[in-house]
Specification:
Rossmann fold, alpha/beta, 5 helices, 5-stranded parallel beta sheet, 20% strand
């Protein structure tokens, strides 16, 4: 059995690298970073991830469009999607389809807490 995958769709490279390091250090998940909306849409054609951390402001395709496509695809229906954004208005738009919405700036402690809660709920 392979380790579960977290798809990290975030265009801020320092933030995505920092979160990926937390994922690798604190969990059994494998982080997969995508920094462009079009690349994220292409990735949706592949195997579903176990969890997605999704920024809403991305180059080429918006996070809201990515979120809608994931929720419309039966392969991604069961995937937990956590939206991370600084845009309060867009956050409200995402609430109906996301499992959780976190407003940026997101603290590392919040990310660690999120992963520990998710891991406990998977046991």
């Amino acid at each position: 059995m392979t380790n579960p995958v977290i798809l990290l769709i975030e265009d801020d490279s320092s933030l995505s690298q920092g979160i990926a390091e937390v994922i690798e250090f604190e969990t059994a998940y494998i982080p997969e970073i995508i920094q462009d909306g079009r690349a994220a849409i292409e990735r949706l054609q592949g195997q579903a991830a176990d969890m997605v951390l999704l920024d809403l402001h991305l180059p080429n395709v918006s996070g809201l469009e990515i979120l809608a496509q994931m929720r419309a695809d039966p392969r991604w229906k069961q995937t937990r999607i956590v939206v991370m954004t600084a845009d309060v208005m867009r956050a409200k738009e995402a609430e109906a389809q996301a499992d959780l919405v976190m407003l940026k700036p997101v603290r590392i402690d919040d990310i660690i807490s999120l992963f520990s809660r998710l891991m406990q709920s998977n046991e």
